[in-house]
Amino acid sequence: MNIHVISLGCPKNLVDTEMMLARLVRRNHRLVSEQDDAELILVNTCAFTDEAVAESREVLDGLARLKQERPELRIVVAGCLAQAGKRVSRLRSPGASRWWGSSVGRHLVTFPHSAYLKIAEGCDHRCSFCIIPQLRGPYCSKPLDLLVDEARGLAEVGVRELILVAEDTTCYGVDLSGISLLGDLLTRLADVDGIHWIRLLYCHPDHLTQDMIDVVREEEKVVKYLDLPVQHFSTQLLRSMQRARGGSEISDMIAGLRTAIPGLTLRTSVLVGYPGEGPGEFEGLCSAVRELTFDHLGVFIFSPQEGTEAATLPDQVPEHVREARRDRLMSIQQEIAFVRSRSQVGKVVEVLVDRHFGGGADDRHGGYSAVGRTAGDAPEIDGVIYLRGAAPMPGEFCQARITDGLGYDLAGEVISRQQDP
């Protein structure tokens, strides 16, 4: 059967998609890139926010119209929206032939040299705004040896960068042993031949331990990069969100991390428009973002999710105010990013080449021959570096001197190719 796959949502969802693809390939189904060539379309959906639900519904509505034109077409809906749709009938699509929950080998759809490694399923936290525990179930760590074997298998097919994901990577192993085993996992993964970069996403600030910090600082293959979603800096709002650390504690922790891990790149995400966020709380958030100068920042707009505590709280913020606050915060971060990129000029950095430009360095690509990333940039969510000169093949590393700051991105010149690490 010819199958076309659409993956929506975050990197954790992408891993699920890749595992679905592997099962399909093993069963001798043919993956096609065009919907018109498909006999079945599989959509892996997301329902984390209203925006994610809207995107999923938009795709499903389009497929429902397509099915009216092609009644024989089968549409299978998987992922979080499918799980929610089993409970909430209004979320279901009339065009769907079948609904799979989120519990359904891998076929990589990322760059072949970069792969997400999902180290756990589910979540035990009860953040007041989040529906994920209801959709994904309790936190369940994958066995450490199984993850190491998966990493070896990825390395054997050319993966050089592992990106660890879970709803909370810092809680890895707590359900298995009573304490986090993330430090042990990172050490074991660093021993896998062929893997050169190991990156951590979704680190909960309440559960980051000294052992984890030590491994990030000392283990050469673990890039000096942490994704640490803080959500806010108002202690009152953080308490309402069911977060343990207050705003000043988070600020102190960030200062401590930068001291403990020289050269650390910090990504965070914040939530604007949470119930009770008045002008004072929002201004405090803006001030904290200015003062702490995160390297990368994602801003999410609060959306009340049915079945969560926050959906029923008083003092809901109007939608237009939430959107305006998101835009203002991103404007502040843009200024920070532009100053940061210009400050990098002249530095020599290690770069993982992601792709070459077809036809070589010509005017169509500004004279750049390739594009890649530094250790401070995760794929898809952070910036890139555009390269001039004789860049190595995609999946290989080089040394480059940064020649210009391009806002969220960088420009550089290859100064040497790197020997296979």
User: For the CA atoms, what is the radius of gyration?
Assistant: 22 Å
CATH architecture level-2 label of the largest domain: Alpha-Beta Horseshoe
Structural class: alpha/beta
Number of strands: 18
> So how many helices?
12
For the termini, the CA-CA separation is: 41 Å
Instruction: Give the CATH level 1 class of the largest domain.
Output: Alpha Beta
Mean pLDDT: 89
Query: Considering DSSP H and I runs of 4 or more, what fraction of the residues is helical?
Result: 25-40%
Overall geometry comes to globular
Strand line-up in the sheet with most strands: 6-9-10-11-12-13
Low-confidence regions: 85-92, 101-106
Please tell me the total number of domains.
3
How would you characterize the largest beta sheet?
A: 6 strands, parallel
Q: What is the third-level CATH name, the topology of the largest domain?
A: pyruvate-formate lyase- activating enzyme
Q: Name the CATH superfamily classification of the largest domain.
A: tm_1862 like domain
Series of H and E elements:
EHEEHEHEEEHEHEHHEHEHHEHEHEEEEE
Keywords: 4Fe-4S, Cytoplasm, Iron, Iron-sulfur, Metal-binding, S-adenosyl-L-methionine, Transferase
Family: Belongs to the methylthiotransferase family. RimO subfamily.
Protein name: Ribosomal protein uS12 methylthiotransferase RimO
Domain TRAM: 342-416
